[in-house]
Structure formats: C-alpha cells, structure tokens
Amino acid sequence: MKRVYLALAVLGFLLPYWQFVPWLAQHGLNPPLFVHDLFANRISGFFGVDVFVSALALWIFIIAEGIRLGMRHLWLSLAGSLLGVSFGLPLFLYLRQVHLDRSVSE
Known about the structure:
The protein has 106 residues and is mainly α. 87% of the residues lie in helices and 0% in strands.
C-alpha cells in the first residue's frame, strides 16, 4: 500500500497544480481574484467549500491518528495538506504506513 499512497500523493500534487500554475502565471499572487474565481458560481463554490471542510477533517484526523500511533513529524502531513488535500491525505497515509511497518518489524 505504501507505493499506492505515494503514487496518489504525487498525482494529488501534480494534477491540481497542472490547473493552478497557469492561473498563477497569468494572474500572479492575487488572493482577492483567487477567492473571486474560486466562488465564481455555485458549482465552483461547492468544490471550494468541500475542500475547506475536507482539509479541516484531514487536520483533525492527522493529529488524532498521529498522536494515537505515536508518529513523529506530523507537521509534514499538515504542511502537505496546505499544498492540497489531495496531496496531504495520501502523504499522511504513506507516512502512517511507513510508521506501522516499522512498528511491526521492531
């Protein structure tokens, strides 16, 4: 499963940024325009709010599960989720699996 999680993390980083980088190149760092475009219509607003709620749930999961398992370096997954939930979640699952595999072998 480690390879699957790692592959999903790579995809979860590359695919969203494939859409974001051209927008950034065209508009630069323009937070008001970003928020305007994110909520330009009900469908994009749906996805924006969905991602915000998913990010909050992911942070709670990372912290709770990480503490429960005694994982170190939880900040990596938290920081990764700031780059995108689709990157942060598989990154955490990968790091969690690495931790679990080490725990079993010890």
